[in-house]
Amino acid sequence: MLENLAERSSQGLQALRKSLIAEHGCEALQLDFELKFVLFLTSRIDGEINHAEKQFNAAFASKIDWSAAHDRLLEARVLAQPSYDLSLLKFGAEHPAWGEQLFRVGAAMMLADGSLNSDENLFLSNLSHQLLNGDPLRSQHIINWLESGTEIPAEPPTPAVAKEDLDTCMAELAKLAGLAQVKAEIESLVRFLEINKARAQHELKGAPMSLHMVFSGNPGTGKTTVARIVSRIFSALGVLEKGHLVETDRLGLVGQYVGHTAKKTDDLIRQALDGMLFVDEAYALVSGGENDFGREAIDTLVKRMEDHRERLIVIAAGYPDDMKQFIDTNPGLQSRFTIHLNFENYSAPELVAIFKGFCEKNQYTLEASAEAALESRVAAELEAAGRGFGNGRHMRNLFEKAIRKHAVRLCMRKREWTKDELSQLTAEDLI
Known about the structure:
Distance between the termini: 50 Å
Number of strands: 7
Strand content: 5-15%
Order of helices and strands: HHHHHHHHHHHEHEHHEHEHHEHEHHHEH
Number of helices: 22
Helix content: 55-70%
Number of domains: 3
CATH class of the largest domain: Alpha Beta
Strand order of the largest sheet: 2-3-4-1-5
CATH superfamily of the largest domain: P-loop containing nucleotide triphosphate hydrolases
CATH topology of the largest domain: Rossmann fold
Radius of gyration: 23 Å
Shape: globular
């Protein structure tokens, strides 16, 4: 049982880890820390780590080639944390595939000594909210698969998505930093759909258009954020009945054996019906060669896009060059993905504006010297940026580092602070 749990929970982990490091600039040590952090927490939910949990931990470490010295280093780093906040799983929250991998590991550790108790179920629910967008169906699939190697039948959820006013959704889109061309193209599409709707009311023919889209751009350029808003826009227009967005990537679509992939892909499509399916890093579906199950996922997706053309809109997202190769692999993709939006990298002023947005949202202000230091740092980092530069995501990480430095700075000097001191970032926090 423990060997099976270790095998299943580590399946595909090494390849995913390499991909995150090579393509997204993730830090190897931080990825390993997040794995160790989850193992540490989940082994202690019901008290001190027991014999079965220790055996699982050792079996898992052997599956991913952790040396005893590396494991001790990671544990020392975990024990040095001032708190055990799930927000420390930053890559797990940013990358859906890594988030699901972490959830697998945590659930497997809890299953090592038998069935789940109430405390463990509660913690897994919290972990699901952090790593799986709180999707109870997906978390149950993972637990069932870890226990038996098979998944329970998927029943499509009925998301409670409130109908919104179109102007409200468009205003939210307009508030996003940068993305001028993307906003203009969405505006054009919305007006076309409005006119088509008005023509139908006067019994005039509407011009047919495939609404499946390709979002091309580097990490952190707002692809997922825009997809979420577009799903709400289409709901407000009446194009989609529910307007919810189901987010996935290769790990959510591709199975481990013949026939598994079609089922996984079908399950996700059923969840997305009357809404949108967002496939992040879609090019990864064709990265495994001719015999890879990713091709099966593409074939299933193309067929279902046709079967449910009135009830499903798919957005495929990823790096520009990779997405062109992805679309070119299948004629069905070429004919269905007719809307291509290019998400440019943010300029230095736009990145500064994004940082200020994080400040405003979290009730921080920038001292004049801090603003100058921020502008200088952003300009330097943009000049040195490569393919993996995180754009808006990089600004969020920079903001989080700044407020941690701010906290350390305040605590090192005194123990009582004014409101201004608690809310103002200085140049020292940005260096």
